[in-house]
Every structure is written in C-alpha cells, then in structure tokens.
Design a protein that fits this description.
The complex is a heterodimer of chains A (408) and B (253).
Chain A: E1 6-7, E2 10-11, H1 20-34, H2 37-49, E3 57-59, H3 61-67, E4 71-76, H4 86-100, E5 104-109, H5 113-125, E6 128-134, H6 135-140, H7 142-150, E7 154-158, H8 165-179, E8 183-185, H9 196-204, H10 206-219, E9 225-229, H11 234-240, E10 249-257, E11 275-279, E12 282-286, H12 311-318, E13 322-328, H13 329-343, H14 349-362, E14 370-375, H15 383-389, H16 393-407
Parallel strand pairs in A: 4-14, 5-6, 5-8, 6-7, 9-10, 9-14, 10-13
Antiparallel strand pairs in A: 1-2, 3-4, 11-12
Chain B: H1 2-10, E1 16-22, H2 28-40, E2 45-49, H3 60-71, H4 76-89, E3 94-97, H5 100-106, H6 108-117, E4 122-124, H7 134-142, E5 146-151, H8 157-164, E6 171-174, H9 188-200, E7 205-208, H10 214-220, E8 226-229, H11 231-240, H12 245-250
Parallel strand pairs in B: 1-2, 1-8, 2-3, 3-4, 4-5, 5-6, 6-7, 7-8
Helix pairs in contact in B: 6-7
The chains are: A alpha/beta (408), B alpha/beta (253).
The structure holds pyridoxal-5'-phosphate.
Amino acid sequence: MKDRGYYEGFGGAYLPEILIATFDELVETFQQAKSDPGFWQEYTDIMSTYSCRPTPLTFAENLTRRFGGARIYIKREDLNHTGAHKANNVMGQGLLVKRMGKTRVIAETGAGQHGVATATMAAKFGFKCTIYMGEVDVRRQRPNVFWMERLGAEVITVREGTRILKDAINESFRDWVTNMDTTHYVLGTACGPHPFPEMVSFFQSIIGKEAREQILEKEWSLPSRIYACVGGGSNALGIFKAFLDDPVELVGVEAAGKGLATGHHAARLSSEDASVGVAQGYKTYFLQDNDGQMKETHSVAAGLDYVGVSPILSHLKETGRIRFEATTDQEVVDALSLTIQKEGLIPALESAHAFAQAFKEASALSKKDIILINQSGRGDKDIFTVADAFADPKWQEFIKEKAEEYHA
Amino acid sequence: MLESYLRSRLKEKEILLMTHIVLGYPTFEDAFRIIESMVEAGVDLIELQIPFSEPIADGPVILHANQKSLAGGATVQKCIDFAQKVTETFDIPFLFMSYYNILFKYGIDRFAAAMARSDLYGAIVPDLPPEEGQDFLEAMQNKRLAPIFIFSPTTPDERMKYLASFGKGFIYCVARKGVTGVDTDFSKQLEKYLARCRKATDLPLALGFGVKEKADVEFLIGKVDIAVIGSQTIRLVDKEGVGVIGEFIKSLR
Ligand SMILES: Cc1ncc(COP(=O)(O)O)c(C=O)c1O
C-alpha cells in the first residue's frame, strides 16, 4: 500500500489484506491518468458528446424576485445524460477500467442515479454490470431499477442491515473481494478507502470548473455563496473545489429527515450526533453509537440517507472552510414544489435540500449578492415519493387502475 | 507467549485447531456452552469475535451471527466481561477478533489494557493493515499482546515479509479470495501459496476460510501449523444445536 490518502487525519485505506494489491493497481492507474494531459481531454470529449457538458448555468429570475434578495443561479447537473452528476464520476472511472483491462463493473446505489449511470457506461463500453441496492431503496426508487435492468445490469436487492446505501456498499465490497481480477468497483461518491475520495472528487471537479467560468462570464463577479446537498459529498466537492481559494462561502446541506431532534436524520456534519470512526474502509464522521455500531439513518432522499461522509468534507468542516446545515423532509418537499412552480425545474429530492437551504437565506442577502445552487439531479425518479408527499389523488387513481390491469 | 504455547503444543500434535465464535451468538449462555464443548473436544485456541454492524470481510453466515448478536443486546463491554469469564474457566489461549472501529471507539490503549486484564493473548483485526495500525501496534506491544496479521493469495512475497515483521504469535493465511463461509478448493494451487507463506516467515501459520471437514484438515497437515474452523460451527449450531459441536470437533482430527 503505497499512498494512503489522508486529509488531516480523515480518510486512509482500512482494507482487508486481500484487496491491497487491487488498490495499489487502482492508485497507480489513476495517478498515471491524472498526470497524462491527454486523459482529461479524452474525459471532457466524452462528457461533451455522450453527456451534455458543459451543463448550463440557469438564472432563476422568478425565484430571485420571490425572495427579493440575492440573485439565484442554478448549475444544471440534471441535464447530464441519465439525469445527475453521477455520470461525471462514472464515465471517468469507466475510462480507468478500460486502462486496467477489466471486463466487469459493480456499484452500489441509493437513489438509483449512480446505478443507472454505471449501467449506461457498462453498456457503452461493453462491460458486464452488477448493481447492489438496499431493499428500502429498491422500493422507493423503482423507476431507476427498471432502467438499470433494461440497460442489461443485474440488480441485486440487499436485505442485510438497514437495507439502504451503507448496506449496498458492504455487499459491493463482498463481491469485489471475490472478483477483483475481472471487476472494478465503481464507488459512487467521494467516500470509501483511498483513492476513491480523491478520484471521485477529481472527476466531479468538472462541475465547479465550468460554473466558475460561467458565472464570471455572466456576472463579472464571483458568487457570495454556493449551496450543494451532501450525501457522500461528491456533487458538493465537485462544485466547491474550484472555489476553495476564493472569497466564497460554501454551504453543504445534509438531510435533517424528520428533524434533528427526532434522531431520524442523516446529518453527520451539522448535528452533534455523529462521531469520528472507521468503517467501509475509511475514517470520517459516522452516525454511530458509543460502541461504534452504525445507526439507522433517515431521509426522504435515498441518495442522502447514508451514515458516513467524505473524509475531505470532514476535514473542511474542521477547518471551517465549509459551513454545514440540514433541512427537513418537509422543507425539502416545499422547496421542490416552489421550484417547480416558479422556474419549471424539477430537482431531485437530494438536490432540493440545497434549494431549501438557499431559500432560507436568500432574502437576507443584498441584491448585489449572487448565490449558486447545484442542482445535482432531476426529480423524475422520485415520482412515487413526491406523489405520496402531495397525496395526489389522480396519481393514486391511476396506480389503482394499473394494478387492476395486471391482475386481469 | 502465544508463539511458545503453539510451539509446545506442536510437539505433541501434527496440526492444531483454532475455532471461531461470534460473542453473544446465539446467546452469551450458548456461546459459553459452545466454548466448553470445543475445549473438551481438544481445540487448541479460540478466536472470539466481537460483533460489528459492518463486517465487510465476512460472508452471510458470520454476518447474520453478528447482526443477531447485536439485535440480542450484545455490547463491547459485555463481550469483554464474557471473555474474562472464559479465560478464567478454560486453560487454552483466547484471541479477540473484531473490526477496527470497535477498538477505535473503545480507545486503543483502553482496549489493549482490557485485553491484558482479561488474559487474552492477542487480536485479529481484518480491516487494519499495519500501515494504518501504528497506535494499535504500540498498544499491543506495551501490553505484550500478539497482533495477528493476515496473508492472502494476492499478497506479493515482499509484502508477506513486511507483514510478518509486525506479526506476533502466528500468521493467519486466508485460503482464497472472497469472504468467510464459502467453500475452498484444497488443491495444488493452495499448496503453492502455502509454500510461499512458509518461505516468508518463521512464525507458525494458520489457514482459514472454507475449512469444514476432516479431509480439509488432513490436507493441511505438514503445510501449516493451525487449521481454522469458522463458519462451519455456526452453521451446525444453527441447524442442529449446540449439542453437536463437541462431536464435530472430535471428528476433524
Ligand atoms: C441527484 C443526486 N444528488 C445527490 C446525491 C448525493 O450524493 P453526493 O453527496 O455524492 O453528491 C445523489 C446520490 O445518489 C443523487 O442521486
């Protein structure tokens, strides 16, 4: 194990011996690619022809007027192929898989966005593909399961533990320790053992690179604040990285679920409930008990419903460079509703956390301030959850009719 | 201490047996009875796994035992207290096995002190390579406890030597890729790997993952010093109850 990837005490590579050689190979392949100028070119080419990069920056005129404070811009990661920033990471790792000569990819998924993105990449590059997904998430993100299977991926329902994202990651590792000769594990966020936090945020940094240029071109000035939701932390690091040395306030928004006081949430960096620990191969803040057993988390957004968080974000929390906040399920559904009505945009429930926090703060800023919200994905996948949240009677009627058709 | 115990036992037996149990599974009382019948049946040392919610190196059998033990109310303190009772009652060495977070949250020094107080001989921490284990290594050294390191078939010769330089007591050789509780092919290829392990260190060698019957143990005689029986005893307890464990162990050698 050559390089261990620490961010002032967070991170590392706490690996079973059987995987050490696999990680050495991955670190080497990634470092070579990173220092090869042709590689970033190859990466941006594929992202501009297969996905939709650069993604636009949208001025949210109606929301700006509604809050009467800062000018609100939205970075449109929802316009990526497959509808989320996840494609940025997946296509990058896909190119590395080709370099390593492996023929199969596996991935965990929570919201299903990372799973769908991985399945498209596998179809395009001709890899076999297996996706692990917790049973709870399979139920709440069913449209994405359907598409993964149509794309030729095998979707394995994980019934262990809390049956969500963390448990899907464990099962992916169990597959990998058996099949590493042929298989690469495409981890979906900036977590896990080194080099994943560095590698995933490297590919996602394309978001902030573009956004910084775009806002300077449009406004001739940097934003005052940037908001991004935080599950594992990949879309947040992706947009934040380009602004780390600028006088810009960075705000990471976690899931407060049913409220921080209820204990039913996934707030690792914005609540007192998390503590430093080591699990899933890395050291960071985890929602765990005093014995070190991981707790159950809750969020209306499957992609934020995770016990750990990027070690890079834990570090930047401690240095104070990033402020962390949390918004509740209810605030998120309200923010989603408002965004749909005012702008005709449909953010994913994950992304809507960033919107909800920005809405809380926009009015207090001046008209000269600019704020940037990262719309990490689109909300189509959430149709069942959102329909339930709005208790939409016509939708319920439709589902009943559809069910009857299948009984016939 | 552990190594000299193993060496003296090896003067009397061709191969030693190490068994594994998950603490608190099915219950602490049953775990005690399982240990009792293992010791009576002639087991030479036992690893006591402190359950963890995220045991990534374990397959379904041990994973479920971890989950059920935790659901039944097992805590780290209960496991340590139980281990103390076990070492007071039985006259063979016991080791702890757990994932690093358990030690980390308890406090590494405090954990090592508790191990020493309970007369445990050492610990196996499968997600802690020596590169990440400096605090652990120091704490174990201070309390004269054996940190057990792991070789795998993917470990290059040079790294085997590196790992062995930190290990005490014995080296745990993982028989194959994959998680615990899956069958192993006891073949020529395994023989070649074990020869590589033997060349890399003078420490006694244990082989685990997939050992479940007499033929497997016989295959290992002359190739390693200790055969490790893990998931198979849990499977038997699940299917046939605590009562059959003694017979099973006696049938192995
Ligand atoms: C649309 C969307 N946004 C955000 C996330 C959270 O992940 P991360 O924090 O890595 O960006 C997910 C994860 O599934 C997602 O699908």
